[in-house]
Amino acid sequence: RSGYSCYESGLGERLHQRLALESHMRDALVLQQFALHYQPIVDLKSGRIIAAEALLRWEDADGVRHGPAEFIPIAEESGLILPLGEWALKTACMQTRQWLDQGFQIGVAVNLSTRQFQDPDLLEKVAFVIADCGLPPSRLELEITEGAAMLDPESSVKVLGTLKNIGVRIAIDDFGTGYSSLSYLKRIPADTIKIDKSFVDGVSEESEDRAIVRAILALAHALDKHTVAEGIETTEQKLALETAGCAWGQGHLFSPPLPAEQFQMLLAGGREITRAIERQR
Ligand code: C2E
Ligand code: MG
Ligand code: MG
Predict the structure, then answer these.
(1) Confidence of residue 232 (pLDDT cuts 50, 70, 90)
(2) Per-residue pLDDT tens for 141-195?
(3) Closest Cα to atom 43, ligand 1: which residue?
(4) How confident is residue 275, by pLDDT bands cut at 50, 70 and 90?
(5) Ligand nearest to C-alpha 174
(6) Which of 72, 115, 195, 211 is the most exposed place for a label (fewest CB within 10 A)?
(7) What is the pLDDT of residue 150?
(8) Long-range CB contact pairs, 14-18, < 8 A, 24+
(9) Alpha carbon of 40 to ligand 1 centroid (Å)
(10) Whose atoms come closest to the Cα of 92: which ligand?
(11) Ligand 1: does its nearest atom lie under 6 Å from the Cβ of 113?
């Protein structure tokens, strides 16, 4: 009565595709077609792997690989992200417990979606998983995007506070890409700030990116937070970040996300290299 709507035939088609993908994903969860890949987070100075970021992968029955950018938004809207996210959290924690048992001293970072972050049972679920796996809570870092944290900043401060109370670490993912209130940033009990790849891209040249990265690092240091640079692809970027005072990083320069067995080979290789250096001393 007070407006008009337009119908575009493509809309029906897109909706149909989305619904098909959603039902496809429900089956995929039951059929265990999801997997976690692990990308090393390294100490830029020593090259030592300090943690792994767990990243979801989905290969369907036809061998088609779907990236998280395609399926996470649909999982988020349909609510499927809750069981999927719990599966990812549990799998990553169990895997890390196994690596600790084998003598690899590493932690794991798991991404949390907005919907998971708003789940009233989040604390209980996280506490249950770490207890069930026997993972020391400080070995788990939960990554939440700046956008998700700032949707309801007051509630984020509370939720993140309760997670920190059980000893879990918190990282702010894709930092710099969302709208962040600096006064809330001060209150958000995050341990780590992850500098988004879009700034890392231009960090090796005298550029606006470099100025922004320096500003983020200065802010992080002043607030006593760790920093991880995301998406490092070149030695020049790594050197520029190191010079600017960034301690940790991840990116294809070191390794892409890998299946657990391959990640473990990387860990074992790293340990051999460290031993060889120690023997030479
Ligand atoms: P993110 O958490 O910021 O993860 C980093 C993304 O950057 C990953 O993309 C990783 O593969 C990619 N990356 C890392 N190094 C490089 C590099 O050197 N060059 C380039 N071009 N890319 C690099 P991926 O795996 O496609 O994941 C995309 C996003 O999907 C993640 O961004 C995260 O927001 C979301 N995601 C992935 N797994 C999960 C999950 O288990 N739960 C939730 N809620 N979100 C997830
Ligand atoms: Mg992340
Ligand atoms: Mg990120």
Answers:
(1) very high
(2) 999 998 888 888 889 999 999 999 999 999 999 998 887 777 778 888 999 999 9
(3) 111
(4) low
(5) 3
(6) 211
(7) 85
(8) 18/74
(9) 12
(10) 1
(11) yes
Question: Which residue is it, tokens 């020593």?
Answer: 46
C-beta 252 within 6 A of ligand 1: yes
Residue 40 near residue 49, CB atoms below 8 Å: yes
pLDDT tens string 24-64: 999 999 999 999 999 999 999 999 999 999 999 999 989 99
Q: How far is the CA of 21 from the centre of ligand 2 (A)?
A: 23
pLDDT band, very low/low/confident/very high, at 16 (cuts 50, 70, 90): confident
Give the ligand with the smallest distance to the CA of 114. 1
Rounded Cα distance, 241 and 195, in Å? 10
CA of residue 10 to ligand 1 center, whole Å: 29
Ligand 1 atom closest to the CA of 36, numbered from 1 = 41
Residue for token pair 């039902």 = 23
Confidence at 270, pLDDT banded by 50, 70, 90: confident
- Whether the per-residue pLDDT at 227 is higher than 80: the answer is yes
pTM over 0.85: yes
Nearest CA to ligand 1 atom 41: 56
Cβ of 176 below 6 Å from ligand 1: no
